C-alpha cells in the first residue's frame, strides 16, 4: 500500500491528493507540519491501512494531534519508509566507494604489469648495453618506472584509507538511524516496535533456558482528564516524567518502552513475581509522591498516579497471550480504583 501511495504521488492524481490532504488537515484542526503532512498523505492514500485505521480511531476518540502524537505515529508507522531511504543512500555511498577502490586496484594492477614489462625489457636490454650512456639510459628508465609504481601504490593506499573512513562513518550513521527507528522521540524510551521485537526475542530466550519472564503494562491514571485540564504540553511533560522514572528502574536486562499514548510496558527477564511486584510498587510510590509543577505558570499539577498489571509467562505462551493477561491485570487495577499493581496469577487463581 505504501508503494501505491508513492506511485500516486508521481502520477496524475498527485496534486489533487496533496490538496485533499491540506483540506482534511485543516478540517481536523491539524497543523500542516511536514510530519503531519506525510502522515495524512499516507492516511488518505490508504485509509484502510494500519496508519489510516489508527488516525481514524484517534479522530473518532477526539484525540488531539499534538507534536508528540505525530512523532509517535511517524515512529510507529513511517520508519520503514525512512529507514529504507537511508539504506538506499547508504547503498549508493557503498557502491561509489567500492567502484573507486576497484578502479584504484585495477590501475595499480595495470601499472604493476607495465612495470613487469619494463623490468623484462631491461633485463633483455642489459645484454645489449655497449657503453656507459646506454647503461645510464637503462637505469633512468628503471628508476622512472619504479617511482611511478611507488606513487601509484601510495595513491592506492590513500584511497583505501579514505574509503575505510567513509565506510566507518556510514556504519555509525546507520547505527544512529537504527537507534532512532527504535526510540520514542518524546520520552527517549524504546518504542513499540523495539518493544515487540525485544519481547519476542525474550520469549525465545526463555524457551531456550526456561528462566522466568515477566511482562508488565503500566498506564497513567486519568491522563486524558489531565491533558484536558492542563494542556498537551504539560501532558507531554508528564509522559516524560513517568518515562524517566521507568528508565531508572529498567536497567539491563530489564527493558522499558512507551507502548502507546500513555501506556508503557516493561520486560523483566529472570525475576520472581515478588521482585517484579516490588519494583512496580516502588515506581508507583515514587510517581505518586512527586509534586509536579506546570513549568509555564508554576501551578501545582496535583498527584499523577499510575496503574500496572503484570503476568509471568507460562511455558510456551505466545507474546500476544502474555500481553493480553498483563492487560487484563492492568484493567483490574483500574477497576479497583487505580494507583495499584495487580498480578495476573491472582486472576488466574480466581478463575
Ligand atoms: P527535563 O525538564 O528535561 O529535566 C531533566 C532532569 O533535570 C529532571 O529529571 C531533573 O533531574 C532535572 N530538573 C529539571 N528541572 C528541574 C527542577 O526545576 N528542579 C529539580 N530539582 N530538578 C530539575 P526528572 O525529574 O526525572 O524529570 C524528567 C522529565 O520529566 C523532565 O525533563 C520534564 O520533562 C518532566 N518533569 C519532571 N518534573 C516535572 C515538573 O515538576 N513539571 C513539569 N512540567 N515537568 C516535569
UniProtKB/TrEMBL annotation:
Catalytic activity annotation: 2 GTP = 3',3'-c-di-GMP + 2 diphosphate
Q: Where is the GGDEF domain?
A: 211-346
Q: Which domain of life is it from?
A: Bacteria
Under SUPFAM superfamilies, the record lists:
Nucleotide cyclase
PROSITE patterns under this entry? GGDEF
Coiled coil where? 146-180
Keyword terms, alphabetized: Coiled coil
**Pfam families the UniProt entry points to:** GGDEF
Q: Does the keyword rRNA-binding apply?
A: no
- Please state the Enzyme Commission number of this protein: 2.7.7.65
Q: Which NCBIfam families match?
A: GGDEF
| Name used for this protein in its record | diguanylate cyclase
Amino acid at each position: 500500500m505504501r508503494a501505491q501511495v508513492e506511485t500516486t504521488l508521481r502520477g496524475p492524481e498527485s496534486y489533487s491528493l496533496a490538496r485533499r490532504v491540506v483540506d482534511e488537515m485543516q478540517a481536523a484542526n491539524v497543523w500542516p507540519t511536514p510530519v503531519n503532512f506525510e502522515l495524512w498523505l499516507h492516511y488518505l492514500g490508504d485509509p484502510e491501512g494500519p496508519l489510516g485505521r489508527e488516525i481514524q480511531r484517534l479522530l473518532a476518540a477526539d484525540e488531539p494531534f499534538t507534536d508528540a502524537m505525530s512523532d509517535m505515529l511517524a515512529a510507529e508507522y513511517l520508519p520503514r519508509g525512512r529507514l529504507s531511504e537511508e539504506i538506499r543512500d547508504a547503498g549508493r555511498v557503498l557502491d561509489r566507494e567500492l567502484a573507486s577502490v576497484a578502479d584504484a586496484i585495477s590501475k595499480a594492477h595495470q601499472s604493476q604489469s607495465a612495470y613487469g614489462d619494463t623490468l623484462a625489457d631491461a633485463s633483455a636490454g642489459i645484454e645489449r648495453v655497449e657503453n656507459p650512456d646506454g647503461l645510464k639510459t637503462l637505469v633512468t628508465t628503471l628508476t622512472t618506472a619504479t617511482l611511478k609504481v611507488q606513487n601509484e601504490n601510495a595513491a592506492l593506499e590513500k584511497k583505501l584509507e579514505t574509503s575505510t573512513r567513509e565506510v566507518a562513518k556510514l556504519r555509525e550513521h546507520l547505527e544512529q538511524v537504527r537507534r532512532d527507528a527504535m526510540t520514542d522521540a518524546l520520552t527517549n524510551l524504546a518504542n513499540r516496535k523495539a518493544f515487540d521485537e525485544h519481547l519476542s526475542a525474550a520469549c525465545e530466550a526463555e524457551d531456550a533456558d526456561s528462566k522466568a519472564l515477566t511482562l508488565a503494562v503500566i498506564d497513567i491514571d486519568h491522563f486524558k482528564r489531565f491533558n484536558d485540564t492542563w494542556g498537551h504540553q504539560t501532558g507531554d511533560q508528564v509522559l516524560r516524567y513517568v518515562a524517566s522514572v521507568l528508565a531508572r528502574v529498567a536497567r539491563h536486562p530489564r527493558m522499558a518502552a512507551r507502548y502507546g499514548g500513555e501506556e508503557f510496558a516493561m520486560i523483566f527477564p529472570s525475576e520472581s513475581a515478588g521482585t517484579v511486584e516490588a519494583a512496580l510498587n516502588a515506581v508507583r510510590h515514587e510517581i505518586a509522591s512527586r509534586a509536579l509543577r506546570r513549568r509555564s505558570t508554576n501551578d501545582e499539577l496535583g498527584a499523577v498516579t499510575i496503574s500496572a498489571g503484570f503476568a509471568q509467562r507460562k511455558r510456551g505462551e505466545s507474546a500476544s497471550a502474555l500481553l493480553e493477561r498483563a492487560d487484563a491485570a492492568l484493567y483490574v487495577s483500574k477497576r479497583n480504583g487505580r494507583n495499584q499493581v495487580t498480578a495476573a496469577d491472582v486472576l488466574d487463581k480466581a478463575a
